[in-house]
Amino acid sequence: MKTKRFSLYRFLGIGLLLFGFLRTIPIVQTQTTLTLYDAFNDFSIVSNPTPEGYWSYGYTITLGGPYIIYTTVGTPRDPRVVAWYYGDIGNINKNISGEDINFPEIASIIPGSDWINVHPGMHGEVNIIRWTAPTSGIYRIDSSFRSVRYGVQPTTTDVHVLLNSNPIFNSEINGYISDGTKDFFSALIVNTGDTIDFAVGYGSNGNYSYDGSAVRATITLVGYIQPFLDFPVSYTNFETDAIHKVTSWFDHDNPGMGNANGTLVKWNGTYIGNAPVGISNCQEPPGSFLSCYDSHDGTDIDYSNSSSEHVYSAAPGEVFDYINDCQNSQTGCTGFGNRVWIDHGNCYATLYGHLRSVDQSITNSPIPVQVGARQQIGIMGNTGLSVGSNGTHLHFGVYSDPNCDGNWSDQVPVDPYGWSYPGADPWQYNTNYPLWIHPLGPQGQANNAGGSVTSSSGISAVVPPGASTDLITLELLMEPPISEPSAQLRSSGRSFWLRALEWLSGGSSIPTVSLAPAVTTSFNSPITVTVPYTDTNILHFDESQLAIYLWSEAIDDWEQLPTTVDTTLNTATAQTLDIGHFDLQAPLLCPGDNTEPSDSYNSATNMFTNNTLVSNLFDIPEDKDWQRFEAKTNWQYTIQTNNLASGVDTVIELYDLDGLTELASDDDSGGGLASKLVWQAPNDGTYFIRLLPKPGSLYGCSASYEIVALGETLIYMPLIVR
After folding, report:
1. Which end of the chain has fewer beta carbons closer than 10 Å to its terminal beta carbon, N or C?
2. Whose CA is closest to 356, among 375, 382, 374, 376?
């Protein structure tokens, strides 16, 4: 491994032009001193892997199969050629003489510079020179494959470049030295620990004889991906809004529509709850803040009580595509509906889907259109396949261009929240750290004298003197709950992950942190955790039973910590010896009202239109009970409340497919204080009902009512004229 000093002007002006990345916007941190990894110059004749751990030599039984490292090194053919090998499995060797060596008996020349000689195995073993990334960044890959033979019989091998055991280049050598090279020249976004393999197999003829192949490979770190994204909607506190505004998370377990497999893995770990994971049960129990669905390849973001929620560019860039001819409630407009694509010039692009409309600054200009940071690009909507399912929201997609060539046909979805859970990310294309320019939580330090960390929303952890004898880095990440609460409890949304980075196998979510090893993995004496809350956080909750819960890996469940609640200061405080996932939870104020919280269309419960009674109650005066139902075009629907407890007065409001547009309302048409609507659906889709207590209505655990809906086909009799 070497460092080379290049003219940055020359490199950016020529090299990056060829690669087609870093094209317009300096979001990537480039280096004037470029780190070069050279398979020939870095070859080790004594250690496998090499002493620095970057290069290793081995084989796989099949292409992309488990990697087996060679443990034998020697000079089986010539003292000038040092090989890593094992029997007839194959070998990887270097000519250390500094001059080309001619072996006329096999009509081969082993190069004395630049090239490593790789020979496949007798039984089809694929021999591999492997490089392992020491750090995340953008790397330039320069590689070539060729024969080492000049006569008798040609080389017949299959040659490949693989990223994390997945082929990204495939070719064949069928010929001699004079027949030239097979080249792979590209730039890749690579994460720490990723592997790039230069592989040689014995070719389509199934014979390893005369199959010596020369491999030339260099890998150059040309820049680091810096966090570059801002939240694409309005927010007041990034730490909390970037969690609570999300209505569906990126699934790290095989993301992509149609790939549902019953498992959801979020950036903070595997969802533990009801399966299969889908829209129908991600809010069960309601208020769990576990909004999600299986195989989702983006991040869905909620509106903020505005029918004209602005959507902003998450970073500067170039709009290279948009669609703006879909209408809200237009079921024939599929996919992401109205959308905007922005290329950020750093091998990443962002997608803004389901928009009600695209901003005129884009539609009135020829493509491509330059946009700045947080420039308004549209209005949140529910066009496309979103219609009738989720209501108004933004599908925010982030995509990487694997070879950084500006061609987005090979785009790969990634999670802007990165991967913070210990262990490997199941979705190998992600960075290990968030792409947001703002942190999801603060860091602090603690040692034998104590320490603390406090979030911008007031959550804190205080380490007393003596609780940690080592210097540790505390990180307090805002997060969705790692799991749903029990059936009797609800999450307040005040959920966080307290970590001591030195105690993690996966390291920090922030790539610049330098860690020193710690001796212990738990505190010597209890630390104090304080969680402030607002009245909005605990609507429908029994405040007297608020408690801080800690997720237990041992029992796969939440454990209640002894908690002191100050209802004047609105704080909950507990002590613990452990770090981990915390959540402020409480039972419902009225346990019989088990659909709460259901105060927005996102948490609406399903209602059938076959006269099935649904029981509810108004537990608080500001209660809002949302229901959703499927309607068909030109069907007539009768929706009414009945069996009202004495003193209960209901109001029904009907909302369109977007969840925002009120279509009809009624107070007392159902007889007495009951409500009734008779309505004909203009389009197929999911509509929403909101039930409110009229001012002066009874509320509390006895304020019950029922709602029922019936759908009927309208039959039109033809007019007969005699």
Report:
1. C
2. 382
Task: Report residue 9 as tokens.
Answer: 């002007």
Instruction: Tell me the one-letter amino acid at 455.
Output: S
CB neighbour list of residue 36: distance below 8 Å, 6 or more residues apart = 1, 2, 3, 4, 218, 219, 220
Count of beta carbons in the 10 Å neighbourhood of residue 478: 26
Helix ranges (H only) for 172-231 are none
Tokens encoding 536: 């909005």
Residue 510 pLDDT level (bands cut at 50, 70, 90)? very low
- Alpha-carbon distance 603 to 289, whole Å? 10
Q: What distance in Å separates the CA atoms of residue 549 and residue 586, rounded to the nearest whole number?
A: 10
Q: Is the pLDDT of residue 667 over 90?
A: yes
Contact 187, 229 (CB under 8 A): no
Q: Count CA within 13 A, CB hemisphere, residue 188.
A: 25
Nearest to 557 by CA among 289, 272, 292: 272
The pLDDT of 491-513, averaged and rounded, is 70
Q: How far apart are CA 170 and CA 350, in angstroms?
A: 30
Structure tokens at 435: 């792409």
Q: Is pLDDT of 66 > 90?
A: yes
Please give the C-alpha separations between residue 357 and each of 328, 384, 701, in angstroms, as whole numbers: 9, 12, 43
Tell me which of 292 and 585 has the higher pLDDT.
585
| Domains annotated on the chain, with CATH | 2-225 (no CATH), 238-414 (2.70.70.10), 443-587 (2.60.220.30), 601-713 (2.60.120.380)
Q: For residue 647, give both structure tokens.
A: 């003193």
pLDDT tens digit string along 460-491?
999 999 999 889 999 999 988 888 888 889 99
What does the mean pLDDT of the chain come to?
86
**Residue bearing the bigger pLDDT, 588 or 256:** 588
Q: Which token pair is 31?
A: 């280096």
DSSP E strands in 303-407: the ranges are: 310-312, 317-323, 338-343, 348-358, 369-371, 376-380, 393-400
Q: What gap in Å lies between CA 617 and CA 628, rounded to an integer? A: 17
Nearest to 378 by CA among 338, 426, 423: 338
Angle at 517 between CA 512 and CA 519, to 5 degrees: 145
Measured over the CA atoms of residue 318, residue 375, residue 350 and residue 346, the dihedral's sign is positive
Longest dimension (CA), the chain: 111
Place of tokens 């505005």: 306
Token pair 């908690």 in the structure block, residue: 563
> Which token pair is 459?
């959550």
- Do residues 615 and 607 lie in contact, with contact meaning Cβ atoms separated by under 8 Å? no
Q: Is 342 a residue whose pLDDT tops 50?
A: yes
- In this structure, are residues 54 and 2 in contact, taking their beta carbons and an 8 Å threshold? no
What local confidence, expressed as pLDDT, does residue 273 receive? Answer: 59
Q: Pull the structure tokens for residue 159.
A: 């040659």
From 618, 638, 641, select the one nearest 697 (Cα to Cα).
618
Asked whether 675 and 650 are in contact (CB, 8 A), the reply is yes
Burial annotation 671-683 (CB, 10 A radius, 16+ → b, else e):
eebbbbbebebeb
Closest by CA to 440, choosing from 242, 661, 612, is 242
